[in-house]
Amino acid sequence: MAVKYKKRVRLKNFDYKGCYSYSITICTHEKKPVFKDSNPVRWLIDVLRDMSDRYNFKIWAYCFMPDHLHLLIEGKNNDSDMKGFISSYKQHTGFYYKKKNDQLLWQINYYDHVLRKEEDITSVAQYIFGNPARKGLVEDYRQYEFLGSFEFDVTHMTM
E strand or H helix at 88, and its extent? Predict the structure, then answer.
């Protein structure tokens, strides 16, 4: 019988702590389109704001697509723990979502990309904000109600 190995999704020799920037994608459980209604999304944004302050992260961009969440985050200090932040966010929101809806909210894992020094935060944010238009949900990203930034006014961004 062949032994199955769990695919490594995090970098082996990197602790994910400090003033790094990350592009994160978190999918809903079984890719269900739960982010079509503003009630859960507004709540998830409020929790994101609270937890980003608690874990010392800037939220440069967020975009709740119907079945996944895109985040562009940056640690504010050497103690900013990305794995702890994302894990706590998923655990907290998943617990209360299940309690209210009797359904799981998130897939077990998530995708992350550590931005390199040459990668521009603005360009990555623009790409994230462009997702709803690329998927045909809106013509202009400014029409999409489930995206934003806690660091700047996204309506003034040129695409």
Answer: helix 82-101
Chain segment 97-106, per-residue pLDDT in tens: 999 999 999 9
Q: How far is CA 61 from the centre of its chain?
A: 8
Question: Sheet of 147-148: strands edge to edge?
Answer: 111-114, 21-27, 68-75, 57-65, 147-148
Percent of the chain with pLDDT strictly greater than 90: 83
Cα separation, 60 vs 73, in Å, equals 6
Write the CB contacts of 69 (distance below 8 Å, at least 6 apart in sequence).
Answer: 24, 25, 26, 35, 44, 62, 63
To which residue do tokens 């706590």 refer?
A: 88
Cα separations in angstroms, 139 against 32, 38, 84, 144: 23, 19, 36, 9
Residue 155's pLDDT band (cuts 50, 70, 90): confident
